[in-house]
Amino acid sequence: MSTSKAAGFDRRYIYILLFILVSIPLLYPLGLPIPISTHTEGVWDATTALPAGSIVVSSFDFGPSTIPENRPQAKAHLFLCRELGLKVIALAFWPGGGPIGDSVLSEVYGEGYQNEDFYGTELIYLGYVPGNEVGMQTFGDSPMDAKGTDHFGTSVGDLPLMQELEDASDLGLWAEWTSGTPGEQQVIQFVQGRHGGPSAVPLVVGSTAVSVPGMMPFYAAGQIVGILNGLAGAGEFEWLVNRDYPEYPQEQGPGLDAQSVAHVLIILFVVIGNVGWAVSKSRGGKSS
Amino acid sequence: MIPPNVGQLPPELDLFAAIFGVFVTVFIYSFLWKENPLSRAVEHLFVGLAAVFTLGFMYDAALSQAVWGTNRLAEGNFIWLIPILLSLMYFFFFTKKYFFLYRYPVSIVAGIMAGMMICGMIQSNFLAQIQSTVELPLVGNGVWEGWPMPGLDSIIIIIGIITALSFFFFTWEHKGALGVSTKIGRYFLMATFGAAYGGTVMARMSLFIGRLRFFFETSYEDWFWAWYLVPVAVIFVIIVALWERRAKG
Predict the structure, then answer these.
(1) What are the boundaries of each domain within chain A?
(2) How many CA within 13 A on the CB side of residue A98?
(3) ipTM value of the model?
């Protein structure tokens, strides 16, 4: 195939190829190994180092469009918090995160968790907290003032766990599940920065893969102590949770296989495209 | 108050949800083949639903602060009327005569955000980053041992920061030593953009895999699997695309 023909190759054939190749591992999992990255270990270490009874904020700051990446991260982390006996205050600074948080908590703590004895003392779900950055800062400064009621209409004054929290420096960990703004940078600016820095409010982040390169400077500076990087991060964390708690299912394995296959295909096409470009240029053709 | 289970379908509608999910997924991805009325319809549906959902939740959450739950207004705490009135002033956007009133809430929000951002960003995005760069290890025990060597990491980061910053230095022409520095800085920037592009690809693939898993893993009472309907949805797209082509002549 000449380079001009390669340049004119209909991209829709690539989509079909991608659809077929990604489908195969989902139907017949390959069982590829899952190496654990250091920033995933950071999330594990920061969570398991907490003494039982520490308060963890789990913030569902994503919408339905990034459920495949963010939801399994949050679910595995909440399961770990439950098993470690950590107290959880879950909330969402994104409107779309409100119902998602409720569904994840239902899976981890059981349907009707708001009617259980532990609700209010070991777990609270505030639901959507309005105000974006302002809401986040208000929650960090004075959690009782961030929202009048929890997700189910109970006044926050009637929830004992909220009384234990004077401000964000009383937290053991802030777990931020995010795909945009407000997200981890706003937690760093408006919560962590105002309440003693990373040592006082340790922050772990589960993010979409697209946002992770932008977070690495904050990770290197210690402002973020661990990152779950997209679907791969969710799969790695699931593996760690499953290692210590075998009853927790490893659901992302086939998805990671499919992602690996897709990446190989894309790398292959990037290489073919660049070789074609280089050959075309060497023959005196257009470089663009 | 919005019921807490809003956004979640009751179990008796699982079949309907699966059928609807298959059709809208195929319709939205049909855009990759060719834009067609079905892909546009689902796109508009998504935007409309997201807008209504967001508006409803924000309205409900804002009122829960002032009216129900806390009963702040009922208890005579009338200071909460101020943000309510300010937010209502946004609606003057739709009148020509009183449009100037719309500018008050906008200017207040912009001012508050500017004040908050300046304080927060200088500390978290500027000073903390400079501090962590200054503290990079170059000497000491174990800095030049093992692989990758922490000291080597530090040198690469320092070179990257200085050269990338020099790329945005426009006081002198990029020649000589500055030219070399900016060229190296450009490669560091390209590597950064490449990493961001890789992350974007990874994220998009995750979403695509999420939809495929929905096809292959969603079932209803063991007789219906979501992927059964994929060919039907594809045929719908083809019929509508052909109809549109014929209508356009």
Answers:
(1) 3-30+264-282, 38-251
(2) 25
(3) 0.86
